[in-house]
């Protein structure tokens, strides 16, 4: 049954949502962590790097001998990791072998709106869609997932998601761990529900959306990973549909954060934990000693979740998970210490702001009082300008805010400068209750009055309920239009 927001708020006091979850000390870590394969590519005559992905249905064994029905790209669960360099032109031939329409959105990518894979770029069953664009942004960890309006939560929960890594010269010069699957590890974290015999089941829906009581990392239940280098880079992606995490090391050592959604930081930051809401990424470094075992955990207290008392429904109250065990070999290859300063993260100058907009997240899954409509463009932005978007979570529950096409900077949170983990390039933020965020973003290019980009809450059930809006980027003086073809009525 679907529980609406209003029902939850009215039921209010005393309702604790799905309850407290703890898997700490209960996860056996008996299964080697799956590493999504690197996607193969070819380079065509004009130098374009060409990938292909096929969305398909299949079965996956999360427990030996027990098949679950799942979806994946080129496999039965999740998808391969795409890798490209800044300055390259890429094309991805996306085939849909499912029996329903879907899309593939390149989360965090700067690209033309027709290539974005939002709800206007549906791929019919049996169809192929071939977006093509030039990679023009710093090295970072991006990801891809479906975005069909009203069905995003279910398509992602079934297993459609993968990573898209970008490299550039500035990153290469740092000598960071960069051997994929060896000392540079994709860590795709999702919650899921399982029956007693290990079949993946639909999760229980709380206010945040579907919440499962167990975690999968890269689709592996109870994963461990063996490493043989002193320094390991983990690319954390919260690919859950609703659950947020506060990642920390089990032995209390600090989390060394080097990168956020859109790129590396100016310098690494030592943190107690790194909080990621759905869609957010973090790159962290871990230095290991020979033979040691270190457990990545998530310890989400009501304080970190920005919740208190009876409204602890975001993650079902306090929750804590054992996520992944890192096992260091007895003999480790030495790794150079990472440089003290990483990359230049140039500031955006607020005096250049050409337009101020306000986005109020309200109680009935609306933004500025509206639910998403495929045929309505909510905001029109002039290409080449810097804008300040003030996002206000005007509710007593957490939401999030994601903007397509751009990487933004957080200028302030309730008037204060952001902490280090929110000071770099971001495309998605956890929006704490009753909190105001000022975001600065530049819309460099790709004016197209007919095809909008999206902004939305990345709690995918909220997005499906309409907590989403559309913006078009246009030439100065141009008006946004919605053509009949792009207006798929849902
Ligand atoms: Cu990760 Cu609009 O999505
Ligand atoms: Cu929301």
UniProtKB/TrEMBL annotation:
UniProt xrefs under Pfam families: Cu-oxidase_2 (PF07731), Cu-oxidase_3 (PF07732)
Q: Name one GO molecular function term.
A: oxidoreductase activity
Which InterPro entries does this one have? Cu-oxidase-like_N (IPR011707), Cu-oxidase_C (IPR011706), Cu-oxidase_fam (IPR045087), Cu_oxidase_Cu_BS (IPR002355), Cupredoxin (IPR008972)
Q: Which Gene3D superfamilies match?
A: Cupredoxins - blue copper proteins
Question: Keyword Electron transport: yes or no?
Answer: no
Source superkingdom: Bacteria
The answer to keyword Repeat applying to this record is no
What family does this chain come from, according to its entry?
A: Belongs to the multicopper oxidase family.
Name of the protein: Multicopper oxidase domain-containing protein
The opening ranks of the lineage are: Bacteria, Bacillati, Actinomycetota, Actinomycetes, Micrococcales
